[in-house]
Amino acid sequence: MTLLTPDQLEAQLRQIGAERYHNRHPFHRKLHDGKLDKAQVQAWALNRYYYQARIPAKDATLLARLPTAELRREWRRRIEDHDGTEPGTGGVARWLMLTDGLGLDRDYVESLEGLLPATRFSVDAYVNFVRDQSILAAIASSLTELFSPTIISERVSGMLRHYDFVSEKTLAYFTPRLTQAPRDSDFALAYVRENARTPEQQKEVLGALEFKCSVLWTMLDALDYAYVKGHIPPGAFVP
Ligand code: PQQ
């Protein structure tokens, strides 16, 4: 592998997103096009809760490894975005407003009892990746957020149009993400462009983004298999 310029590296990262980001997954297409019933949407929100709930732990793991106050200050804001600054605020609390709005019992959602095994494995793999890999790879693994504003806009407009059981209030989780995600991914992209200086480091960065796309993809494969194809594993949420 030859050394890429920062622009070439960014182009390859964007190419990975264009090919592998979870907006292309059939389950998301069905979710956004109104092809799922309420129970299937509940299963999506319940499983995705685990992703949301572990994101601040993922970011705290990385925060602890960052070498400078400047980097830690930047990363600390992500934890506040998700955990809030007081009870009832932040992204995780807003996700619970979505599961409430879909009629799921809050204690049941927070207990994690109904998760699909693959949801747990995928999300845990992401947290472990950020713990175990280089700081460069860990930061690069957040770069899926480059692509999330587009899918979030599609999701919110599609779901509001097609489902009478969701409202702007229940989908309020997504509104702040439209400004938080670009801010976060701009920082991560600038870091990666600046710090991936050898072919090996560039390969690591590209591999980290592919890995993260696989995390997101696997969660949707599992939802599709269980709740569209009908093979619900023992112990998982039964609508
Ligand atoms: N990704 C992260 C991360 O890797 O640190 C944090 C988030 C995402 C979020 O807080 C999100 O809400 C989010 N949402 C979507 C989505 O709705 O499709 C995707 C992603 C992503 O691409 O990882 C995140």
TrEMBL record:
Give the pathway annotation. Answer: Cofactor biosynthesis; pyrroloquinoline quinone biosynthesis
| Primary enzyme class | oxidoreductase
EC assignment: 1.3.3.11
Task: Name the InterPro entries for this protein.
Answer: Haem_Oase-like_multi-hlx (IPR016084), PqqC (IPR011845), PqqC-like (IPR039068), Thiaminase-2/PQQC (IPR004305)
Q: What is this protein called?
A: Pyrroloquinoline-quinone synthase
Question: Keyword annotations for this protein?
Answer: Oxidoreductase, PQQ biosynthesis
Q: What does this protein do?
A: Ring cyclization and eight-electron oxidation of 3a-(2-amino-2-carboxyethyl)-4,5-dioxo-4,5,6,7,8,9-hexahydroquinoline-7,9-dicarboxylic-acid to PQQ.
A matching Pfam family: TENA_THI-4
What positions does the domain Thiaminase-2/PQQC occupy?
11-221
Per the UniProt record, the source organism is: Gluconobacter vitians
Q: Which SUPFAM superfamilies match?
A: Heme oxygenase-like (SSF48613)
Q: List the catalytic activities from the record.
A: 6-(2-amino-2-carboxyethyl)-7,8-dioxo-1,2,3,4,7,8-hexahydroquinoline-2,4-dicarboxylate + 3 O2 = pyrroloquinoline quinone + 2 H2O2 + 2 H2O + H(+)
**Domain of life where this protein originates:** Bacteria
Which family is this protein grouped under? Belongs to the PqqC family.
